[in-house]
Amino acid sequence: MGVDQGEHRAFERMYAAHHQLVLRYCYRRLGDLEYARELTQETFVVAWRRRRDAPEPAAPWLYGIARRVLADHWRTRRARPVTVPVAESTDAGAEDGGFDAVSLAQDLRQAFIRLSEPDREILRLVTWEELDLAAVAQVLGCSRTAAGVRLFRARRRLHQLMDTPPPVRVRPVPTSVRGGAL
Q1: Class of domain 5-77
Q2: Predicted pLDDT at 71
Q3: What pLDDT, on a 0 to 100 scale, did the predictor assign at position 53?
Q4: Can you give the pLDDT at residue 1?
Q5: Residue 46: which of 21, 27, 64, 71 has the closest Cα?
Q6: What pLDDT score was predicted for residue 2?
Q7: Could you point out which of 20, 40, 64, 65 has its C-alpha 20 to 30 Å from the C-alpha of 95?
Q8: Which class for 107: exposed (0-12), middle (13-18), buried (19 or more C-beta within 10 A)?
């Protein structure tokens, strides 16, 4: 089965329109630009093979492919994804110059890290990728209703974690310090 010029041009347009989106999607989950580029290319290889299945809009479909590509790599390499839950800019308190914004960003980061990976992923899709609920459902391979319930629960758990400080780890004092002079 050959590829006609129309298919080729349509894929080129899809690639041009969505390459940066998929690259950012991968980078935000990996924290390594070179590795993100590699997985982005792999995502488009899979998309090329399945080009006849591509819906409009294609972004949620591509995110779904990228999500599976990332999962396969994490599973085969047994590596954990690096997540950066706050915005790519580090000047969280720049607008008001206050410590409250910085403190809030740090609290959000800590709470986000304590969420389960499925909760983090649905929140990323809505906030970072700016997908609507129908697109999120397409990426996750579930119904719109199920995606809505997952999003509601993830947001609720994030709010609960924001209200609950992380557990403090106390290191035991070495015996030599306990009984001896300082």
Answers
A1: mainly alpha
A2: 86
A3: 87
A4: 54
A5: 64
A6: 64
A7: 20
A8: middle
Taking the alpha carbons of 12, 50, 70, 147 in that order, is the dihedral positive or negative? Answer: positive
C-alpha to C-alpha distance for 150 and 28, rounded to whole angstroms: 21
pLDDT per 10-residue tile (average), the chain, 182 residues: 78 93 90 89 92 88 92 69 44 50 72 89 89 91 93 91 69 60 50
Structure tokens at 52: 């006849």
Give the amino acid at 166: P
Domain 5-77 and domain 99-163, same fold? Reply is: no
Judge whether 62 and 21 are in contact, CB under 8 Å. yes
- CATH fold of 99-163 reads Arc Repressor Mutant, subunit A (1.10.10)
Angle (nearest 5°) at CA 141 between 137 and 142: 60
CA–CA separation, 75 vs 21, rounded Å?
A: 23
Give one DSSP letter per residue of 112-138, joined into a string.
Answer: HHHS-HHHHHHHHHHHTS---HHHHHH
Residue spans of the domains in the chain: they are 5-77, 99-163
